[in-house]
Structures are given as C-alpha cells and as structure tokens.
Amino acid sequence: MAQKTFPTYDDPNYTTRNTVESGVMTGAAATYKWVAFAAQFGFSVTAYMDTIGTSTYTGTTSAQTVSLYVVTNTSTSTTVALVTATYGPYIAGSGGTVAQAGSYSVNVLNTSTGTGGFGGVYVPAGSELYFQLGTDATAKVTATYDYQLAPLAPVTA
Predict the structure, then answer these.
(1) Which pLDDT value is given to residue 59?
(2) What SS3 state is found at 146?
(3) The pTM is what?
(4) What is residue 97's predicted lDDT score, i.e. its pLDDT?
C-alpha cells in the first residue's frame, strides 16, 4: 500500500509568493474579482498606470486610483454575515504626486507580524477579493495582488 505524504511548513507551496494580476482595467469603478482558494496573507497591491485618463490629477483625487476589497463570511451558523475590508484607495502610478504613463506604485498592505507571525493581511479561504478603479472613465490601470498561502492551509476545491 502506498504511503500518503502530507505537506510540511517548508513545502514550496507555502513559502512561495504568488500574484493575481487584473490585466488592463478601464472605465469608472471598473472591477476585477477573484476568490481566495486557500487561507493566505496579502502583502501588497501594485498599481501600474497604463494610460492617464482625462480627469484633473492631484494627489488627493479619487479619479485615478485602485482599491482592494476583501469580502469574508464571518458567520458560524447557517446565516450569512459578510464583512468587507477596504485597502486603499491607492493612487495608480505614484506615491502621491502626478502619475505618468508607465509608472507604478507598490502599496504595502500590512507590515506587522499579524496572525501566525507572518506579515501581511490575513485572508480566509473562500473570501472574495476585488480591485476597483476610481471614477476616471478613461484611465487604464493594471493592478497586482501579492500573497502567500498560510502555512498548511487546506486548498478548497
């Protein structure tokens, strides 16, 4: 009889960083959604400015921004209790100054050691995550979410 091997804490599936990339998003409040297939720690959101839109750009405008939303069901019964965590808005392509086409910004989600001694924001398995653009209808932005699976997290089917 074959012996089944179980993963360990140093298994590459749990020590390798992964990314989810949106592709080019355009249009006011455009979204890109996905589901966390396993518990994970989110580390950063990178926003790349592909094409600057027509809105007047300042460091405080919401027009050319990217936000990350994490929607989690916190219910322990048969009812649904959704909680949404919002990260951002982050100015696409800059750290607070005027963006340029081809520029990017890396936005760290959390630098504390958090759950289990890992940095990053804990995202339970089955959570819906999505990027949403600001109000500029003509800007084109690509966003990337950087994450790592939680140690020994089971993968949902």
Answers:
(1) 53
(2) strand
(3) 0.81
(4) 53
Backbone dihedral angles phi then psi of residue 101, each to the nearest 5 degrees: -60, 135
Q: For residue 119, is it within any domain?
A: yes
Q: How far is CA 51 from CA 25, 27, 93, 119, in A?
A: 10, 12, 10, 32
Which residues lie closer than 8 Å to 138 by C-beta, 6 or more apart? Answer: 26, 51, 53, 54, 55
Which CATH number does the domain housing residue 116 bear?
2.60.120
Identify whether 85 is part of a domain. Answer: yes
Amino acid 69: pLDDT: 96
Number of Cβ within a 10 Å radius of residue 8: 9
Rounded Cα distance, 140 and 29, in Å: 11
- Two tokens at 137? 């209808």
Task: Report yes or no on 17 lying in a domain.
Answer: no
Number of domains in the chain: 1
For residue 52, what pLDDT is reported? 76
Q: Which domain holds residue 69?
A: 25-149
Residue with tokens 């800059």: 94
Task: Write the DSSP assignment of 38-76 as a string of letters.
Answer: S-EEEEEEEEEEEE--SSPP-TT-STTEEEEEEEEE--S
Pick out the chain residues at pLDDT < 50.
none
